């Protein structure tokens, strides 16, 4: 009976240790680094149109963490998203919609 209680404590410790893992995918808000600044998704669609004459760039790399280099994002593994600056802030094209990203205040 005593061994059964020790096994139960041991199993609980293993489960708790596994649940304490940090830095797993999904722990970070959608973000992109541009010009050494991190911009976060507002979740809002851009209210205006993107001026096609402005420079539009593609995301260059993906990370499971917070972006650490210019052009890197943590929300699209396919690297097909475009981004550009607008009067409202940074706009990123996700699923054919321009989503507004802003610096955290």
UniProtKB/TrEMBL annotation:
The record, for PROSITE patterns, names: PROKAR_LIPOPROTEIN
Quote the protein name from its UniProt record.
Uncharacterized protein
Gene source species? Faecalicatena faecalis
């Amino acid at each position: 009976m005593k061994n059964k209680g020790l096994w139960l404590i041991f199993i609980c410790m293993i489960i708790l240790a596994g649940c304490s893992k940090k830095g797993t995918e999904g722990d970070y808000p959608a973000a992109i680094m541009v010009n050494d600044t991190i911009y976060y998704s507002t979740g809002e669609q851009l209210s205006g149109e993107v001026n096609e004459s402005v420079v539009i760039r593609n995301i260059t790399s993906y990370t499971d963490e917070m972006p650490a280099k210019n052009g890197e994002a943590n929300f699209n593994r396919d690297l097909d998203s475009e981004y550009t600056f607008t009067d409202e802030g940074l706009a990123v094209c996700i699923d054919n919609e321009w989503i507004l990203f802003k610096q955290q205040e």
